[in-house]
Design goal:
This protein is an alpha/beta fold and 348 residues long. 32% of the residues lie in helices and 21% in strands. An 8-stranded mixed β-sheet has the order 3-4-2-5-1-6-7-8, sandwiched between helices.
Amino acid sequence: MRILRWLAAPLSPLYGVVVRSRNRVFENHPERSARVPAPVVSIGNLSLGGTGKTPVTLHLAKALQAMGWPGAVLSRGYGGRRAVDPMDVEPDSDPRQTGDEPLLMARALGPGRVVVGRRRAFAALRALAHDPAPRVLLLDDGFQHRALHRDLDLLLLDGVRRWGNGRMLPMGDLREPMESARRASALVVTRGSRAPRPEILAWWERHGSGGPVFWLDFAITALRSFPDGERISLPAPGLGPFFAFCALGHPEAFLADLLVAGLYWSGSAQFPDHRALSPEDLARLEGQARAAGAAALVCTEKDAVKWKPEAAGALTLPLWIAEQRVLGAEPLVEYVASRLEDLTAGTR
């Protein structure tokens, strides 16, 4: 990957020109952003994946529902191949059509709560056609998707990785220049307890909009066995050591979260983001786990959502799914709910 980035380095200035030009088009022609008859909250970031957009989106959807704001999540459905687009995602949908993260959210939220579509304005209209219609739409990974107007733009920043080397693709991880942070209504710093707060606040003061800053954390709080679903709350002394594996944009974060939860691993394996692991892959991982002296395998919910129960049929080591929670999000939820109340005050 590093070699490919160096080979593509001459394209980095051109990429920056294209991104800035596109942004100017939307800034000069706001009518190009489609509006729908419901408030839209975007959850996104400046960089490539790994900031925790999906767990934050899922947490917001659940918390707002409990506060009287039933919503629907709109997702691109990255990696899904479907004949019908946009498409409702149900708990029993095929991940090959929907993508892994939308299916993960649909299983947590229930039927009629997630819609995938390459053109998310159309996905929004499909969601609003549900009965009852959602009161709010959550645009997952929406910061760069400016074809749909948003009323609230939440910009996520990984407090540990932050902005990487500060360069745009392909030499860095930034999808947009840092000054694009001025579009954000608020900054949401994930893994905030490990973040250098003064440095991030100075960055936000220089590049951001002046909106509020929220600090969140992720914690692995339980393990669920696959495929039978037995659940163990953490901490649980005596488990492990584990062999950890995942197909994430930034696997280092998962490995660190395991250690913070007291789940020690003796070996690990990483795969490209969104990769669907086959039963043969799992068998090879078990061999690596035994060679590393591991007593069990552990992966993320995003990995496991792509498997059918029989995928683990040949395994003899236990296979555990790490359940992750968002911590410290109460101020963020209250802020979003308050803004929604302001947005809809004159429409009731």
